[in-house]
Known about the structure:
Blueprint: H1 8-33, H2 42-54, H3 59-65, H4 70-82, E1 86-90, E2 98-102, H5 104-125, H6 130-147
Antiparallel strand pairs: 1-2
Amino acid sequence: MPGLRFPTEVISMAQEALQLLVSMHRIVRHLRRSRTTTLMHPTQFLALMLIADEQPIRIGEIAARVPCSQPTATTTVAALEEAGLVRREADPVDGRATAVVLTEAGAATVEASGRQAAEELAKLLDRLDESDRTLVFQAGAILARVTDDL
């Protein structure tokens, strides 16, 4: 719209948010290229990590939290189940529903993938001095609160 002007602070915040988005995307892309997630599709990796944290969890909740569509969540869980990483069982709250839990192999995969991702991220963070690393970890905690409801 002609004549519409945003305050300088809003423009500056938008530029900083865009830079944060680009930087976070580059880190995620780097981790995806590393050996941490190359054995499975990123959606499968995210679902597996979510299942590890929230098990037992229904497929609908996986779809909402990954986020992806219900059919994608169903296909993702089926692939993880076929790989022996998860199994379906009766939901402890509602026995008519199905919940997803990790198998022993799934737990081992989560452990190994988490360790590898942490090692890769540590390599990136080693480039920073101690005070900057502390700021990154503080920002991570804040971003976790922001994204908890997404």
